[in-house]
Fold each of these.
Amino acid sequence: MQSHRRFLDYVIDGDSFYRRHGHDLVSVLGWFVPEEDELAAQRLIGSESPDLDGRTAIAVCPEDGDLLCGLLTARIVEDDAEIQWIDLAYSYYNYESETWQHDPFRLAHGPELRFEAEQYRAAIRERPVPEGGSPPPG
C-alpha cells in the first residue's frame, strides 16, 4: 500500500525521470521539509557535499526519504558549461559487509545524463519549494 506521492520530478528531454528509472523512488525535491529540500537542492548543484561515497542522492524512498531504504545516486561533475550525472546506480546498504553497494543502472539512452549548466542550476534554484513538506513518520 502506497502513500499519496507528491514530489518534483526531473523532466529530461521532455520525459519523466520517475517513469524512466523503473524504481519505486521519488526525486529528492519538492516533498520533504523545506530545510531538507534546500539541502538536497544544494547537493544537486554541488554547493554541498554528496550524500555518500562521493555520490549524490537523486531519488529516494517515497515514504520517509531514508537512504537505508535504497536510493538512486549519481556522481555529479561539472565539465566546462555542462553538468553530468555519471555512474548512475541503485545504492543500498549491505548490512552483512557494512558497506554501501552501488549497482550500476542505465537509462534507455545511456549510462549518464548531461545538462547545460546554467539551465540546470536555474531549474533547481527556481523550483517550487514545499511549504510544510511531509515529515517522516513517527
Amino acid sequence: SPRNLMYGVPQGSILGQLLFTLFIAPLQDVNSSYNLHSLFSADDFQLYISVKPLTPSVALDLLSDCISAVLNWNTLNKLQTNLRKTDVVHLTSRSRNVCYAA
C-alpha cells in the first residue's frame, strides 16, 4: 500500500537495495576524507587503518574522529547506529605491523 516517507528507503520495495545504496553513497566521502579504507555490505560497513608501531595514538585519534563524523552523518541523515554492535578490533602480526578495524 502507498506510504508517505519523509526520509529513508521503503523497506521491502523492489528498488530498496538500489535506493539504499544511493542514499548511503555519500558516507564513503566521509570515510575518504580521513584517508581510511572501508568496506560496505548491506547496512553494515567497516573502517580499516594501518598503524605505525611507534605512533599508534595518531591512528587511533584519526579513527576516533572518523567514527564521530560517521555517527554525525548518520544522525543528520536520520539513520540509527546500534552502538552495541560497534566494535574496534586490534590486529597485529609477529612482524609487529598493527592494524585497527572498526
